[in-house]
Amino acid sequence: LICNATWDTVTCWPPAPAGTLVHMPCPGQLRGIRYDTSKNATKMCYENGTWARKADYNGNCRPLVDSHTAESEEMRQWGRHLENAKLLNNVGHAVSLFCLVIAFMNCLCYRNIRCTRNNIHWNLVATFILRNICWFIMQEVVNVETVLDNSWHCRVAVTLFNYFHVTNFFWMFVEGLYLHMMVAHAFGTERIKCWMYAVIGWCVPIPIILSWVIVMSLLQDERCWVDSTTGQNSHYDFIYHGPVIIVLLVNFVILGKIVRILVLKLRAHPNSLDTTHYSIKAVKATVVLLPLLGITYMLFFIHPSGRGTSKIFFRYFNSFLQSFQGCFVSVIYCFSNTEVRT
């Protein structure tokens, strides 16, 4: 007895002797899913010369996970991480903006605490407020349609955001400069007038951004002056990234000198404190100064490549620190300020 050839809508089974288990390669593709044809499906030919009602495709026939499928899944996972990082950015900027506005209003209401030091804090808080507002405007204005059209309001939004971004760093530099003068030259802080600090913080960034605008208008006047594929800015942005990097490096030097001077002063007046306490105080001073002087941004000049764990961690960590920095500044220099609290 034999089982006659048969077609089960998937595989053509050839004639086979009764009482045998027939093996046939798995289908190459079924319902749009590719399978490994090196594996076999099976179907039983019974002793009475009849086929089993169903062939066994589940045992060995497994869908192929090809490179395209794996890449698509990786892209979906990366997209989810980008969405989560964007949500974290939104929450961080919103919380920071709320805290910054309260801090700013405190500076306006309590005129009795007005001094050069607190006026510098006030201006730094103002730059954070304006930058955060521009960041939210950017989320609404810069989209696929406006980027492709290279609309003027999109370019204006990008320009304003970059300007306030740079002023933010220059007021951080003013903070560092004033702190250094206060620590190193206790009686020389009033040599530089407030208007001089204002020129450094608000006016110096203007020619820097104007230079960038001119270069972008002449050499890359497209896509709202941002890269629509990656969301990152072009290499011409080093026109203002360069001064920002210089400011950060100078602040890093200032921070080192401030900590060194503080340690030396603590050692000169130990008041029965041991060396460990000196170190703790120096570390505390450093932690307080880090968000103020913007040294945290130094960590993000080298971006991890690819889409691995390090890149994902960088995205979240970067989003958290940069979006909540305004909140940190508000807490450290307003809400925990003894002059404001009293």
TrEMBL record:
It is found in: Cell membrane. GO terms for molecular function: G protein-coupled receptor activity. One of its GO terms (cellular component) is plasma membrane. Keywords: Cell membrane, Disulfide bond, G-protein coupled receptor, Glycoprotein, Membrane, Receptor, Signal, Transducer, Transmembrane, Transmembrane helix. It holds the Pfam family 7tm_2. InterPro entries: GPCR_2, GPCR_2-like_7TM, GPCR_2_CRF_rcpt, GPCR_2_extracell_dom_sf, GPCR_2_extracellular_dom, GPCR_2_secretin-like, GPCR_2_secretin-like_CS. PROSITE patterns: G_PROTEIN_RECEP_F2_1, G_PROTEIN_RECEP_F2_2, G_PROTEIN_RECEP_F2_3, G_PROTEIN_RECEP_F2_4. The chain crosses the membrane at residues 91-108, 120-138, 195-219, 239-263, 283-302, 314-335. Residues 1-65, 85-337 form the G-protein coupled receptors family 2 profile domain. It is a multi-pass membrane protein. One of its GO terms (biological process) is cell surface receptor signaling pathway. The keyword Signal applies. It comes from the Eukaryota. Belongs to the G-protein coupled receptor 2 family. This is Corticotropin-releasing factor receptor 1.
